[in-house]
């Protein structure tokens, strides 16, 4: 029987980084994955350029039923630590917006970095690994992999969430947690586009591809100021993805389509200067023409000139454009979601080591845990930080 100090299940961001750190710390490490390739999500991430961290990483950018849990790991292995590692590998990067750091060249560079870090730690990789059983033994754990038994002192579960099943996502980590008596909080898709009810969708479909800066507000008051994108299925774009993590079925969201404009003052001024100008042409000065036309067919925009626009109409228009109430039909689900909310309940884990308090030698890191970041590099930073914290204990 093969024997290891540490077996890591899942060769994604968290698993590879943890395996590398544990190996470099002197452990004999085996890294298992059910896929054909290492770091598949990393390769897909950030449009192929991997948004590997965010300069503004802070605990407030994470959702969890236990919001304090992420603090320790994020403070001990920070965004600056990972940037330092990226720099040591000579990987050129840039800030795209809002502190989001991307590779100049390709996400493959981050996977190569992790592979080299694993090689430094003499980590054994095994891809296409089907794990059929995990049992607790006196010395640690016995794992059945592709019909063979592997034994290990410590077991690290880094099998991720349910988003993008095409990239190997599976509920493996949740089932394993339950097998060992840990609670798993209900999961749902996060950072995911909204779908819309048919009547609204039919109107908005003509806008497919149109993007506008917006401020979106969730029912709980959470606000994001980024752009939204109209698609043939509904609404997407950074503001929508961010808000989706805070949205519950049935709730309305508020969209301000003119977040940088005092619309009332603008309309009053335009009315003075160009009383015979149509409302449609006036609004087209600040909104894409297609959007204005669509609002007109939706009946949300009176077909009037500015001098004809009366006070109640103006008030209704301002409400419509700056506090547009949209009730999503749902989300596109795990098929396109970037992350999975919920997961292994952190109240059963040590925030210092990621170890299960009641099950010695068993650890959960990365997305499988109930810690989910905003869009913008926060999820990879959680993967690096939780992996590092865990590796210090192995
Ligand atoms: P991850 O999902 O990366 O890895 C889990 C691994 O476990 C996979 O390799 C899987 O094959 C393996 N596995 C699952 N079940 C198994 C089983 N039963 N047996 C063996 N192996 C198993 N975040 C960010 O910060 N910046 C970004 O730019 C992006 N971009 C992005 C784009 C897209 C398209 C997606 C889907 C997601 C992102 N994300 C992101 C989110 C980010 O990819 C995600 O949070 C991390 O990859 C999570 O890392 P983990 O290592 O925890 O899981």
UniProtKB/TrEMBL annotation:
Limits of the RsdA/BaiN/AoA(So)-like insert domain: 188-339
Pfam families linked to this entry: HI0933_like (PF03486), HI0933_like_1st (PF22780)
Keywords: FAD, Flavoprotein
Domain RsdA/BaiN/AoA(So)-like Rossmann fold-like per the UniProt entry, residue ranges: 5-392
Cofactor list: FAD
Domain of life: Bacteria
This protein's name: Aminoacetone oxidase family FAD-binding enzyme
Gene source species: Rouxiella badensis
């Amino acid at each position: 029987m093969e024997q290891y100090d540490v077996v890591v299940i899942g060769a994604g961001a968290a698993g590879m980084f943890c395996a590398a750190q544990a190996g470099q710390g002197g452990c004999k490490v085996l890294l298992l994955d059910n896929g054909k390739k290492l770091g598949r999500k990393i390769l897909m991430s950030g449009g192929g350029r991997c948004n590997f961290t965010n300069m503004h990483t802070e605990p407030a950018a994470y959702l969890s039923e236990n919001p304090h849990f992420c603090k320790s790991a994020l403070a001990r292995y920070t965004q600056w630590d990972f940037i330092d590692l990226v720099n040591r590998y000579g990987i050129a990067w840039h800030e795209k917006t809002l502190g989001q750091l991307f590779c100049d060249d390709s996400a493959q560079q981050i996977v190569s970095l992790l592979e080299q870090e694993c090689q430094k730690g003499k980590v054994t990789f095994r891809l296409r690994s089907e794990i059929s059983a995990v049992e607790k033994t006196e010395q640690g754990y016995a794992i059945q992999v592709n019909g063979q038994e592997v034994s290990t002192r410590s077991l690290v579960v880094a099998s991720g969430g349910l988003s993008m099943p095409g990239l190997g996502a599976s509920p493996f980590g949740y089932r394993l947690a339950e097998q060992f008596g840990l609670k798993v909080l209900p999961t749902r898709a996060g950072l995911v586009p909204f779908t819309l009810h048919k009547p609204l969708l039919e109107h908005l479909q003509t806008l497919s591809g149109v993007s506008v800066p917006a401020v979106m507000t969730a029912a709980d008051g959470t606000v994001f100021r980024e752009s939204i994108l109209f698609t043939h299925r509904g609404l997407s774009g950074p503001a929508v993805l961010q808000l989706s993590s805070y949205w519950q079925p049935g709730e309305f969201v508020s969209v301000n389509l003119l977040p940088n404009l005092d619309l009332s003052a603008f309309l009053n001024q335009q009315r003075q200067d160009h009383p015979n100008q149509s409302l449609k042409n006036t609004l087209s000065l600040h909104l894409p023409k297609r959007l204005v036309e669509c609002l007109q067919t939706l009946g949300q925009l009176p077909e009037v000139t500015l001098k004809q626009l009366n006070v109640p109409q103006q008030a209704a228009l301002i409400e419509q454009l700056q506090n547009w109430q949209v009730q999503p039909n749902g989300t596109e689900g795990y098929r396109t979601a970037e992350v999975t909310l919920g997961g292994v309940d952190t109240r059963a884990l040590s925030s210092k080591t990621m170890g299960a308090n009641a099950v010695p030698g068993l650890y959960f890191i990365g997305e499988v845990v109930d810690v989910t970041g905003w869009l913008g590099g926060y999820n990879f930073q959680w993967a690096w930080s939780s992996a590092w914290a865990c590796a210090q204990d192995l």
